Amino acid sequence: MAKNLTTRSEDYSKWYNELVVQADLAENSGVRGCMVIKPYGYAIWEKMQAELDRMFKETGHENAYFPLFIPKSYFSKEASHVDGFAKECAVVTHYRLKNAEDGSGIIVDPDAKLEEELIVRPTSETIIWDTYRKWVQSYRDLPLLINQWANVVRWEMRTRLFLRTAEFLWQEGHTAHATEKEAIAEAEQMMHVYADFVENYMAVPVIKGVKTESERFAGALETYCIEALMQDGKALQAGTSHFLGQNFAKAFDVKFATKEGKQEYVWATSWGVSTRLMGALVMTHSDDNGLVIPPKLAPNQVVIVPIYRNDEQFDAVSEVAKELQKELRAQGVRVKFDDRDTQKPGWKFNEYEMKGVPVRIAIGPKDLENGTFEVARRDTLSKEIISKDKIVATVVGLMDEIQTNLYTKAVSYRTNHTTEVDTYEQFKEVLEAKGGFISAHWDGTTETEEQIKNETKATIRCIPLDGKKEAGSCIITGKPSKGRVLFAKAY
Amino acid sequence: MAKNLTTRSEDYSKWYNELVVQADLAENSGVRGCMVIKPYGYAIWEKMQAELDRMFKETGHENAYFPLFIPKSYFSKEASHVDGFAKECAVVTHYRLKNAEDGSGIIVDPDAKLEEELIVRPTSETIIWDTYRKWVQSYRDLPLLINQWANVVRWEMRTRLFLRTAEFLWQEGHTAHATEKEAIAEAEQMMHVYADFVENYMAVPVIKGVKTESERFAGALETYCIEALMQDGKALQAGTSHFLGQNFAKAFDVKFATKEGKQEYVWATSWGVSTRLMGALVMTHSDDNGLVIPPKLAPNQVVIVPIYRNDEQFDAVSEVAKELQKELRAQGVRVKFDDRDTQKPGWKFNEYEMKGVPVRIAIGPKDLENGTFEVARRDTLSKEIISKDKIVATVVGLMDEIQTNLYTKAVSYRTNHTTEVDTYEQFKEVLEAKGGFISAHWDGTTETEEQIKNETKATIRCIPLDGKKEAGSCIITGKPSKGRVLFAKAY
Description:
The structure is a homodimer.
Chain A: H1 12-22, E1 26-28, E2 35-37, H2 39-58, E3 62-63, E4 69-71, H3 72-75, H4 79-85, E5 91-94, E6 97-99, E7 106-108, E8 113-120, H5 125-135, E9 144-153, E10 167-177, H6 180-200, E11 207-210, E12 222-229, E13 235-245, H7 247-251, E14 255-257, E15 263-265, E16 267-274, H8 276-285, E17 302-306, H9 311-330, E18 335-337, H10 345-354, E19 359-363, H11 365-370, E20 372-377, E21 383-387, H12 391-416, E22 418-420, H13 424-433, E23 437-441, H14 446-456, E24 459-464, E25 472-473, E26 480-481, E27 484-488
Parallel strand pairs in A: 3-9, 17-18, 17-19, 22-23
Antiparallel strand pairs in A: 1-2, 4-8, 5-8, 6-7, 9-10, 10-16, 11-12, 11-24, 12-13, 13-16, 14-15, 19-20, 20-21, 23-27, 24-27, 25-26
Main location (chains A, B): cytoplasm
Subcellular location (chains A, B): Cytoplasm
Catalytic activity (chains A, B): tRNA(Pro) + L-proline + ATP = L-prolyl-tRNA(Pro) + AMP + diphosphate
């Protein structure tokens, strides 16, 4: 594998695009805006899915599956929802192809037009709430705690692998509750679950907060979010959890009989994370040599590369490598022994560096003589010679150490790129000079938010939940604010 | 839960439709032909997925993900393939909605017409082989062993839950090989993997065979299949694996450099099973009281129901129940303790009978006195009193016993419903009287096959791989045959 990756300082955006392809995570397909997730990228996504799915189940949720298609009339029932998604909907209008009569090839059969057009789901609130009407009659049927793993389509005009694609994979939770309080508690809980996953598995620190009104999900009364900071100083929304009030229950007439026998509308939440998380993972940890994957999500945590000049050496090295692989696997470490004879060790070193495998172990004839292994860490690019009696403990220990180091580095980067400012001058200076999160007072109006966005491209990422509630004056209008909010340019 | 299930003998088809809904597996949605897979149904599907996915990985396959949409021009590249699927394609023609100018509501924006229509994938050979062209250059890139878990859409006019739906979930394997021999070996291997799963996890015996030319997948040179027999004497195709020759490689120009430096087309296979397996599972084992789920796929293998008249009794019973739950879980048994006070024991008994939970344990005050448990098997509907010292071993043993019993029963049903006939008269008599598989001589022509199909609705399910290769005469034309083939009416 040739090292021809653009560096981050040269062109961060180009570095990202090249890296995703060169590390075999994903590539563009022949279909505008739709990506192919390659086996290596999908293996990481599967690890993410497995952990998230476990967390959802531990918090009482069950999986189900709802239709890909949503009749146009359903989609239109919740007004702000359709406004939010109408401009990017893929629409199915026909259900058959046929041979053109003039022999020019295959055409859409004009006689097979659907009575009602179907929208390819951009999100499933409408089809799911149409179903919940049948599932909810009494307080005994609540809460409904359901999650779906699915593909969704939003017809984006400008797409980038993982970050913004016309089709993407995600999970969407949709819950129904008897009371407003319970629904809010659920929405908050799922924000915490997401933060737990992103911080402890992806090693990406996040700020928990709520969105301003203009940044809320179409149809939500409150949008909880987790915001991460990428290495170019731009923020990335890593997950959202919405308190939907009774909007969808009213649009789809979902009522329940209370214990007292009254009919009331149900309270709702929805929450989701997507393959966009892959983009956050890549952009938080990776470097100019390639990917850096945290051990908890690495398909291979350790790769063993044999060094040899002849068959005899290969056999001797292989024996030790296989024994080590066995011992590490017994400790729950995912180890690959790359014994391919089609590639040289140097090529393999580059390949695994590009693919971000946390630990690389090389074994050569010298090591056999000395009873040692060469252990290289991907995160620090450092190498060490480890003796046979310490190798298993060292590698097992490195799993935690690397995971922690990546998280600590990311926290430190964020700390260095979070700035409190008290004037709009400072705001613009900091944004220009180093980006990152800017903590500033805001008067709470959409007008001010819009002005800042138009003039600087920075948006309010969130009103942090654990932010200081100090009094202050808006950096634009000087009007009183209730506390600082976080601005940043964002993906 | 009221017992109002139509019996199998009254109306098998109605029994199936009611059962799927009453047991909370799935229901029809507001979208024509598309189903909602409910949490209980999805939990069973997840167990199937997990086992299949493990088997695919153990045989060297990796997962990946390809676009939902296929440009019409790709789709048309392999002639027999497009012929096979053109009549049932959902077609995306537009990418935006807007408010109608006359205020009549939301309409499809006529200005947002796609330059080229997109087909919602009915199967992914074309988009995948368009991608493989980029992935395959040399023999070193082969074999490519890839699987995808996805939703697909085939616009069926008459649909039934799980058995035939416009959208369904499935996995589709797509492999590329350097030689014809390897590709055929792969296609055969996957048929065996499917048979292994269906027999050992679903407890459904299958016949392995190949399809006749007219029943092959559109674009295949050979279709391997596994065929199961349902309780109404109709066959169900449970999985197929296709040897595709070089058809798709030629259509999409996928060539590789051999070791000798020659350019050759790649050899292909594809193979899939779908949520249709859920239908096979239901129809093979279930009875007039509801579902019967084999232990290996049951989300809950055991349910414990407490019997009590007051809080004191409840507490005492609960303590024993929780202890048992813990002990059984330690043995790897999936146990639910249903301590809901909103439902009576009788209601719970009916519910778990309907849902096919393999073992039900009841504990009441009498049991506490005697140190016993009442253990009920769902498969035999028998009950037994088991003492405390034997309960764990008994229940653990029942898991295997029930799994084996279900399989044995299904084999026995199939044996009793497989008939050898030597005349067309006999053929029609048997088909009418008891259905099932009919083993008969056939002259190998599509004309004869068509005639039998038109006259009796029976099709050739497969040419069994381990069928007797005896000589004989076709039951229709009297011409020589090379061996018996299996006929049946089929789902």
